[in-house]
Amino acid sequence: MSDLALFSDAMQDKAAQAADFMRLFSTPSRLMLLCHIAQRERSVGEIQDELGFKQPALSQQLAELRQAGVVRTRRESRQIYYSIADDRVAVVMEMLLAMFCGTVPVTSTEAPAGRGAGAVSLGEMARWARLDKTD
């Protein structure tokens, strides 16, 4: 079997897995949610307030992301906090922001407490990101 045939077989084996992963980014609301919590851990209340999601829709989106293993939860008293559990999500979010927003985000792991002037957070980009095609 040639190297090309082996490569093709390996790609076919991974195609379904890649398609399932990319489905997580397939709705604007889920994309905004992932972009927002990729910046830093957020409580459900913060997400609702900052993105304007209604509780039932937010719960449904978070449950799907949790079930897919993309986000993790942490409970502190009555608050539940969400953060990104899959490093691949951060990579995809950075790529999407660079492609569609023209910027690369300053994430909480990259930015010191006093970010420089002009630095934009993932949360700010999540609120204002435009996902329409530009020519």
From TrEMBL:
Keyword hit for DNA-binding: yes
UniProt signal peptide: none
Stretches assigned to the HTH arsR-type domain: 10-104
Keywords: DNA-binding, Transcription, Transcription regulation
A Pfam family recorded for this sequence: HTH_5
InterPro entries per the UniProt record, alphabetical: ArsR-like_HTH (IPR011991), HTH_ArsR_DNA-bd_dom (IPR001845), Metal_resp_trans_reg (IPR051011), WH-like_DNA-bd_sf (IPR036388), WH_DNA-bd_sf (IPR036390)
Highest taxon, organism lineage: Bacteria
TM region positions: none
Name used for this protein in its record: Metalloregulator ArsR/SmtB family transcription factor
The organism of origin for this protein: Rhizobium calliandrae
